[in-house]
Specification:
mainly alpha
Length: about 900
């Protein structure tokens, strides 16, 4: 809009100071807010100029009301303009950035992961790029039009600016309470280095100063009063009114008056640029310009009237409307048909850029050629799936489907179902894939059958799932659809052992003949699972690690392949005595299928328990239950609830555990093996901690371990219950089972030592990374054979397992001073003699604070709460 910045000296000082601080490594985030036309963009542009003058790399993007359906559009726009100018070494090591911004210089994105984790990695890649370009200013204008992903990415970048040479700057209209921008503003106020700059209207004196600059002379007091009254001190309105002699009652009339005075070529080009939004590249404008008038001459006239602005870089030039209000009015004045025609023009003039073209194809309707539109919309839908923007993916793919011909429909229906499933709409996903099954050819029918098999298994209809799977297997065996076969295997693995052996043998045979990584991933996973069924865990780990390596080499071509291998591998690593490796493989919860993600959460929670973190495991399970409830996956909800009941029992919340177990049983209409096994585990833990081990359900299947960790936990706790109940026959059977499984699984063999009461169990389990199981084994050995439990108490306290802690404290109180450390025992004896803390400190050459710390630890170990109780306990030990 030109002219001097009037009335913004304090704000300029604050922003300049923020730029200087960022240059010195004290970055921050600043949000400029205020009503439309108040001067936010001008202030942001001034800050950009200051930063450039100080040697900053400037990345600038602008949200556009026409592109709100394109996830991360302003960030993508800001980064893409700059990536072309960077040498390839600066782009190395940023694979997850390629998920956000497709660019030939970026490495291949890492395989698809759990949405939250993948998005964090993507955000972190953006942050690392900013660090490489430092000092960096990222400016995003018009945040009130930005999608939620953009808002969250800015928040992520802004909250980690301390100690970095990065300034994040945003501008937005006054936020509506509850909106994403309002949430961002609240977060910025709380974070160090965060600042909001609300812009106020200009005073009468500042209006006079601005009018004088516009008119080239000093305005009269009447002019100042009238303009101030009509504009209420908003700079944009002052500029519109002060630059002419006519007076308007509303800004729309101001803008329309200026547009009506334009010649026809100028008006047409302004409309084209308004529709293009932030993508008015000169090359696109040249391809789209249909008028006889010279484009450059028309652009010069629009620039001269300050209706458009020119943004030049080293490699390109683009144009946009000078102020969003002008663009809004120009766009609103077009008829629906004119808008659609111009969107088609922009889309067709941008042939090689899906991110730019797709939003325009979305609004072009019948004005765009169907095949071109479908290709762009389908590509945009797939891109949205990869960045986990499910709602956006559904929007693009549904429009693409409406215009697609028969040959284009199958892949769109596949992706649409995946997007709907990701969005928590399983019924709509089933409808899409059923349509694909009816319309598809011999190549596509098995793929849709596999997808439907997996989906129906998630929804709990095992009979229909197996029917789809059998049909799909028959058709797919000659098609090489290995990803579909893997999904089918995951869908039907709840059946009996004979069926699972047959299934996995088929998969290994079908896929093993193909040397491709995808086929080998499935074949090696199948062989690994057969080894699990044979209780050969060393061979299982070897095969599953090979499957994982093959799957990783497939990358984004087959993102589901690694899911099954890693889920089972995490448990096998634990059983073979490598709990840290189990955590590593279980930590990434990748899959586009909600059921698959929930299954991996289950595996992670199991490993967390074995690693000694039942509280973290319970939090993981509860998050999984919440996810599963959104999409009504009753089978998974039931399974997650049973394990939650087990964890609650371990944490001593027995009433809550029993209620949760009842909820789990009510959730599942048709029982399945994994549910029965998890239910038995929870019920056994509850009986054990209630002091009624004889009420534990019997271990029905002595061939357990097809689900490695769940099977191990179930057998272990059945053994603990039989020992507590004095059932020597059952104890012997369970010990034999654990010994058999432990031939190739060190942790299982250590569990056999534990049930057998051997003193080797605790040290073996601790060395494997299972401190909680080790402490439990140490306590059980001390209960049977005597010994100190001092080392167990802090483990139980940290894990929050109150039943085990109470047992240890009871034993500690009954075994005398041996329950305490040497120093704690010394201090306890002196307390028993009647010494004060000061007296004890003097006797032992300690500080009083150290004495108090040892006393607190002793109280906690013994489960007593007062000095008097400690004195009584010490005297009882002497007696």
């Amino acid at each position: 809009m030109g002219g001097a910045l009037v009335g913004r000296r304090p704000e300029i000082a604050v922003l300049t100071s923020a730029v200087d601080a960022a240059a010195r490594g004290r970055g921050g985030m600043v949000l400029i807010s205020g009503e439309a036309g108040i001067g936010k963009s001008r202030l942001g542009e001034h800050t950009v100029a200051v930063a450039r003058g100080r040697g900053f790399t400037v990345l600038a993007g602008q949200a556009d009301p026409l592109l709100t359906g394109l996830a991360y559009a302003p960030i993508v726009s800001a980064l893409r303009r700059h990536l072309d100018t960077l040498p390839e070494p600066e782009l190395a090591g940023l694979p997850d950035l390629g998920r956000l911004v497709p660019h030939p210089g970026l490495p291949e994105p890492s395989p698809s992961v759990d949405p939250a984790l993948a998005r964090t990695r993507m955000f972190e890649s953006v942050h690392r790029l900013m660090e490489r370009l430092a000092p960096t200013l990222l400016f995003v204008d018009d945040l009130h039009w930005a999608d939620r992903g953009t808002i969250e990415l800015l928040h992520y970048l802004g909250r980690d600016t301390a100690g970095h040479r990065l300034l994040v700057l945003g501008a937005h209209r006054t936020a509506i309470p509850g909106s994403p921008v309002a949430e961002l503003t609240a977060g910025v106020r709380r974070q160090p280095g965060g600042l909001e700059l609300p812009l106020e209207a200009l005073s009468a004196g500042e209006v006079a100063e601005m009018l004088g600059d516009l008119l080239g002379r000093r305005p009269t007091s009447e002019q100042v009063g009238e303009v101030t009254a009509r504009t209420r001190g908003v700079p944009l309105f002052i500029s519109a009114l002060g630059g002419t002699r006519t007076q308007w009652h509303i800004v729309r009339d101001v803008v329309l008056e200026r547009l009506l005075h334009l010649g026809d070529p100028e008006r047409r080009l302004l409309e084209l640029i308004a529709v293009a939004g932030d993508d008015g590249w000169l090359g696109m404008l040249r391809r789209a310009w249909w008028e006889d008038a010279d484009l450059d001459a028309v652009l010069r006239r629009l620039l001269g009237q300050a209706l458009v602005v020119e943004i030049a870089t080293e490699t390109s030039v683009r144009y946009r409307i000078a102020h969003p209000l002008y663009a809004e009015v120009a766009y609103a004045e077009l008829t629906a048909n004119e808008r659609a025609r111009l969107h088609a023009t922009v889309a067709l003039a941008t042939p090689d850029d899906v991110l730019v073209a797709a939003p325009h194809f979305l609004r072009a309707g019948e004005h765009a050629p169907a095949r071109r539109a479908v290709e762009a919309l389908a590509a945009a839908g797939r891109r949205a799936l990869h960045v986990f923007a499910a709602a956006e993916a559904v929007e693009y793919l549904e429009v693409a489907l409406r215009r697609a011909d028969d040959g284009q429909r199958p892949p769109i229906l596949r992706d649409l179902g995946l997007a709907q499933q990701q969005a928590g709409q399983p019924a709509r996903a089933a409808a899409a894939w059923s349509e694909g099954l009816m319309r598809g050819d011999d190549e596509w029918r098995p793929r849709f059958l596999m997808l439907l098999a997996a989906l129906e298994s998630e929804r709990g209809d095992f009979t229909l799932a197996e029917s789809h799977a059998a049909d799909g297997m028959r058709l797919a065996a000659t098609q090489g659809d290995y990803v579909g076969l893997l999904q089918w295997a995951l869908a039907v693995r709840h059946r009996d052992l004979a069926h699972m052996r047959e299934l996995t043998s088929q998969l290994a045979a079908v896929c093993g003949r193909d040397p491709s990584d995808a086929a080998q991933a499935v074949a090696r996973q199948s062989l690994g699972y057969l080894a699990v069924l044979d209780a050969d865990f060393a061979r299982a780990r070897e095969e599953l690690e090979a499957a994982h390596e093959h799957a990783m080499r497939c990358g984004l071509d087959a993102p589901e392949l690694d899911f099954g291998a890693r889920r089972i591998l995490s448990g096998v690593c634990v059983l073979t005595g490598d709990v840290p490796a189990g955590l590593k493989f279980a930590a990434a919860k990748d899959s586009r299928f909600p059921a698959a993600r929930a299954s991996t959460r289950f595996a992670l929670a199991m490993v967390q328990y074995f690693a000694g973190d039942p509280v973290g495991a319970l939090a993981e399970i509860r998050a999984a239950i919440a996810d599963a409830r959104v999409v009504e996956l009753h089978r998974l909800i039931a399974r997650q609830l049973t394990f939650a009941a087990f964890l609650l029992a371990e944490l001593g919340r027995l009433d809550e555990a029993e209620q949760t177990l009842r909820e789990a049983r009510a959730e599942l209409a048709e029982p399945e093996f994994a549910f029965d096994e998890a239910t038995g585990l929870a019920a056994t833990a509850i009986a054990l901690h209630r002091g009624r081990p004889q009420d534990a359900p019997p271990l029905e299947d002595l061939g357990a371990f097809e689900d490695p960790l769940l099977g191990c936990a179930r057998v272990l706790f059945a053994g603990l219950a039989s020992v507590a109940a004095g059932d020597t026959e059952t104890t012997a059977q369970i010990t034999w089972l654990l010994r058999a499984g432990g031939q190739t699984a060190q942790l299982v063999d250590a569990c056999a030592d534990r049930v057998d009461g051997l003193d080797t169990a605790a040290d073996r389990l601790a060395a494997m990374g299972a401190p909680l199981l080790a402490a439990q084994a140490r306590l059980e050995h001390a209960e049977r054979h005597g010994g100190s439990v001092a080392d167990c108490l802090p483990v139980f306290e940290q894990a929050g397992v109150t039943p085990w802690l109470d047992r240890a404290r009871r034993l500690a109180r009954s075994t005398g001073l041996g329950a305490l450390t040497k120093r704690e025992a010394e201090i306890a004896l002196l307390v028993g003699e009647g010494l004060s803390n000061a007296g004890i400190a003097a006797r032992l050459f300690l500080s009083e604070r150290t004495v108090e710390t040892h006393l607190r630890n002793g109280y906690r170990r013994l489960g007593i709460t007062s000095r008097a109780a400690l004195v009584t306990w010490v005297r009882e030990q002497h007696e």
